[in-house]
Specification:
Blueprint (H helix, E strand, L loop, with lengths): L4 H11 L11 H4 L5 E4 L3 E9 L2 H8 L10 H13 L10 E9 H7 L6 E4 L20 E3 L7 E4 L2 H26 L9 H4 L8 E9 H11 L6 H17 L1 H12 L6 H11 L6 H4 L3 H12 L2
The structure holds flavin-adenine dinucleotide (FAD).
Length: 303
């Protein structure tokens, strides 16, 4: 279980003490506050705090003295307009603070998103738990033969069993040595900041991650995408569900224009215009490379 009974009790206590406030409150988000959503085998995402809602985006866009809301229909229309025209700063008026528990190799991908504020659990100060990400059997896949940066068919039989055994045994052996090195029982005990260096990248770490809605959407666009590695994608998908409850208009616009939409080059757009006029366009007469054409066809045939 990702959360201990003590941690669960702390969450219940926080949730049992609501405060009256004059600040904007998003009802969809209130139900998420503090609760942990399980991700992978020991990880989670939970909302620690947030600022703003759909109305706050409109309020900022209109530089309003009041709530910024004209009517529900008007607000959704305005948010869609802002998203469509890349008028991004009103989305930056909303913020979210998450507590995330994740394997170190996922954290390495996540931390590349520089436009967020992060504070990570200190393994110089604290002792890491014996918690390692071990993939479920259906995620234990072979190297993809199509995509160098991905996985293909799931491993089977003896090979799958052997790989699982290596992952578990290596993780535990490294942790046993970590414990032995930091122990001060009959020895000086190695500093935690040094002992951690033999721990594998599937050990779990934790951080607080605060980001504005514009940059959150950018993160989700890249990491909830089918091209993202499964282990970060499942975190992004959990956050997508939270964002959909928090800012439903903005999330719907994001789904429509960014997640479900596509960016086309001038050449690709020209091909579509020619197709609409009835011309037979092929890779050879498209002006695109084979790779571009393959992706263009995939875009047209998706869904
Ligand atoms: C499928 C996939 C595969 C990837 N593969 C690799 C890989 O093989 N190797 C690798 O190293 N990385 C890889 N990455 C990471 C990728 O290159 C980006 O570093 C990561 O997605 C963060 O994106 P970002 O810089 O747009 O986000 P953020 O850092 O959040 O930045 C958001 C935006 O702010 C602006 N910005 C922020 N900081 C700066 C700056 N210093 N200068 C200029 N503009 C800035 C940019 O417009 C940027 O798009 C991969 C990412 C994905 C999604």
């Amino acid at each position: 279980m990702p959360l201990s009974p003590d941690q669960q009790a702390e969450i219940e206590e926080l949730r049992s003490n609501p405060q009256q406030t004059l600040r904007a409150v998003a009802p969809g988000m209130e139900k998420h506050l503090y609760k942990a959503i399980d991700v992978l085998d020991h990880g989670f995402v939970r909302v620690i705090d947030y600022m703003g809602d759909d109305a706050a985006i409109c309020q900022a866009a209109r530089v309003s003295y009041g709530k910024g809301t004209k009517s529900v229909q008007n607000d959704e229309g305005l948010i869609r307009y802002l998203m469509r025209h890349w008028h991004s700063t009103p989305f930056e008026m909303c913020e979210i603070k998450l507590h995330v528990k994740l394997p170190v190799f996922v954290a390495r991908q996540w931390i590349r998103h520089r436009t967020a504020n992060v504070n990570e659990y200190s393994a110089r100060y604290s002792i890491l738990d014996r918690e390692f990400y071990i993939p479920a059997p259906d995620q234990l896949a072979a190297q993809s033969v199509i995509n160098n940066q991905g996985r293909g068919e799931a491993l089977t039989g003896d090979e799958a069993a052997r790989v699982l055994e290596y992952l578990k045994a290596d993780s535990n052996r490294a942790y046993d040595h970590y414990e032995q090195m930091i122990s001060d029982d009959g020895q000086q005990g190695l500093a935690r900041e040094l002992a951690r260096m033999n721990l594998p990248a599937n050990i779990y770490t934790q951080w607080y991650w605060k980001v504005d809605l514009h940059n959150l959407f950018h993160f989700l666009r890249l990491r909830a995408d089918a091209h993202a590695q499964y282990e970060i994608r499942v975190y992004a998908e959990a956050i997508c569900a939270i964002a959909a409850d928090w800012v439903p208009f903005a999330y719907r616009a994001f789904e429509d224009y960014r997640m479900g939409g596509a960016t086309l080059s001038a050449t690709a757009l020209d091909c579509i215009r020619r197709m609409v006029k009835g011309e037979t366009v092929t890779q050879e007469n498209s002006g695109m490379s084979k790779g571009e054409w393959r992706e263009f066809e995939a875009t047209l045939n998706a869904g």
